[in-house]
Fold:
Amino acid sequence: MVSPLSALLLFLLLLLQTQNSFQEKRERMVKQSIEARGISDKAVLKAMRTVERHLFVPPDQVAYAYEDNPLPIGSGQTISQPYMVAYMTEVIRPKPHMKVLEIGTGNGYQAAVLAEIVQQVYTIEIIPELGESAARRLKQLGYENVEVKVGNGYHGWEEHAPFEAIVVTAAAEAVPPPLVAQLKEGGRMVIPVGPQNGTQTLLLLEKRKGKVTTQKLLPVLFVPFTGGDKK
Structure:
């Protein structure tokens, strides 16, 4: 018969082996799918190596957590592929002092990556079950610098504006004017724009001297931005 102490030691050994396996997969993901494709910001790479993506996906998706693919998370939504998360994070040029708004919390993975780098993340999710679940998960994982709100991201989060950066993780048919208004002078916003049932374009907006410039980055395919301009 196995003693309670032996059983505990065996459990701890298996847990350590599992954690090491995830760490190896995460390192391989960063090297092969992110760094090899041009992401070079050291803070972004460190965040991608740190955040445990397998903790942000449903149990039946854990085996695929470190593959460079989007994965279903329920309610018709997905977690973005790791490369896209890293790319969008690098594009906003994150710095430790920054306050960042994210639209489309989903399961909280992008928010966690941002929170590893910047001072404060405000994130909005329109689907209550996803937003509430993400809030619990982020709190359990110790992300005290992330605040989650369930609501319509079209209107942003005016009471915490302006933001040094805004990251939108759902495709809008046009850039929401309230988000542009809440972008700080010198700030950057990354957002996919285009039709719901087709290829969209990832845009980078920069606000300089009250004017906004727009740059097309690359074709993408995101879930639709819901909510619109309704309160």
Q: What stands out?
A: The chain has a mean pLDDT of 90.
